[in-house]
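Sample 1 of the test manifest.
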Amino acid sequence: MDGFHAVPHCVGMESPKGRVGNERPLLSVVVDDDESVRESLPDLLREFGFVARAFSSAEEFLSSDCLGETSCLILDVAMPGMSGPDLQQELKRRGREIPIIFITGRRDDTVRARVLKQGAAGFLLKPFSDSDLLAAIKVALHAA
Amino acid sequence: MNAGRTGAVPPSRPDMNARVEDPAQQVRRLQRCISDLISLLALPAVWSGNEPSQIVDMVLDALLRMLTLEFVYARFTDPVTAEPRKILRVADSCTLPVPQQDVATMLGNWVERNGVHSLPPTGRQFGAEYISIVPVPLGIHGETGTIVVGSERADFPSQTESLLLRVAANQASIGMREAGLRREQKRIADELDRRVAERTAELAAANAELRRSEERWRSVFENSAVGVALTDLNGRFIATNLVYQNMLGYSDEELQQLTFLDITHEENVEENRSLIAELLAGQRRQFQIEKQYRRKDGQPVWVRNNVSVVPGTERVPRFLMAISEDVTHPKISEEALARARSELAKVASITSLGVLTAAIAHEVNQPLSGIITNASTCLRMLSSNPPNTDGALETMRRALRDGNRVSDVITRLRTLYSKKEPSLEAMDLNEATREVAALSLSELQGRGVTLRYELAEELPPITGDRIQLQQVILNLLRNGADAMGLTDDRVRELVIRTERDGENQVRLSVKDSGVGLTPQVAEKIFEPFYTTKADGMGIGLSISRSIVEAHQGHLWATANDGPGATFSFAIPCTFEDLSDAEADVDQSEPASDAA
């Protein structure tokens, strides 16, 4: 296990895989309007040792009770309504310093440069390998 | 003394009593005569400016006194008024028994009857008195009138008295003539004055009118909303209005030191010069030019000038007039627009291919990403202790599903892009629609969607690529179903409708009762990345549009009056221009199967 620790309080999470001692797992949130992503990524994140939750839109995430508990955000770039970068701005505005890893099917260097400048921890192009994702998460959490 | 002229001079009478005068008496008499003469000759000084009647009156008065006459009578034509006049003066000491009126009448008659020329002196009895009556002509031939004097003395007039009478008459004549002349002069002077006054008034009025007109035109010049500049034929500024000055940043005086070519941009000078030349040569009446001026501060300003020649008058030579409009801002916008357009064209040529590639990549990427994530998860699940086989199974199921999706996409893309142009055949849109609908029916029903058909009875055949168009229809059906996938409160019904559209087109529309569209969204959804549709096994709306447009048709979306949206495409029945040969070939053999 990679041993991420935290105390997630938000509702609806799956219990994490076996922990040693009193370490509490971290919450990782996926926001993507793509259903297959919402199906597959949380499972992978759980394999990493996270508690994982998925939302289909930025708005849904913002109005959830997970904001304060989220240790790491896996965020799609292009979504109907509020986009990924918009959510990044909004979280900043609210003073929520959540490490964000952007995932996107479209390569756009402008967007990449912008979100990284705004403090994103990572920017992954789909399809990405599980090791790429894990490495990015580690960077994100250590930087936080 | 006798003047020697007929009737002009009253002849003197010889002294009847033949009194002998001694020298002393003679001297005294002559002295008196001289003095009387002097008096008579001095009269003109007194009567200057008087009326003829007054003049005659004075003369008569003088005679009455000097010659101790009983009466004096004058009858004359007023030289000024041309009226006949009569004056009778009777001495205070005169003791005539006859009323004065009668005397005047009698004398008048006598003069008239006899004509003055041949009037000799005569005598009349007036009661007990015998009066000598002596006519004296006025004017050389008595044409002016006659004076008649009456004296008690039988020997009247003596030589000296005759002289005096003559001189007095002359004076009277002269005086009257002068009076006449003076009056004439005055009349002429008055007439002249009147005419001068008239003329002056006319001129004043004309001047006022001119000034008004000048003010009006000056006001036009100064208050014009556009710049106006007048130059001589060499282009040197004569006058400019404020707008023009402000446009250029020069004062009127400064401009008068310049010609308009001095401030024109080099690029425009040649054209400008040749147009002016044509203008001056009479080859054209005016010209229009858009050019750049250089302001005093060096900044450029774009203007549109209308230039014409103003013909000359007697006083003013011809000059050039320019109406000058500042078009800097429209010019800037034009330039910016042109630049933007060319940029856009460049970008557009690059991106159309890019868009397509990206669209394809995206369609493939989605499921691919799913495969990799699911497979990675699967491995981890299996390598955990104990292995999570249930989880592994689930992830593999998903992976397979995604794999199939990619496969479908590839297949369709192969078909789509195996030929550059659509492979055209005459086809029935209704038939193609029914085929597609049948294929997707189970899928739709699985999502709780019902399908309703409103296919036109007699739809003309169209020329199109059957497979491609079916792809589009499938796409629309799936989109419609997706839109309704989010609604629970109403019936999920898709209505497919075909109809003729105008003269030469057929239209197909798919109407849903889903979440609907705002007008902004209605266009955006045709952009490749507006939404991601992981469930879509077909192609995106952007590719659908490309296909329809390749068929020379249009694909669009509108919001319904009620809930939901309607997606429609319209395609012409007959294909314009290209590949008529290809169409013929296709029709000669039955439509070959597509991949």
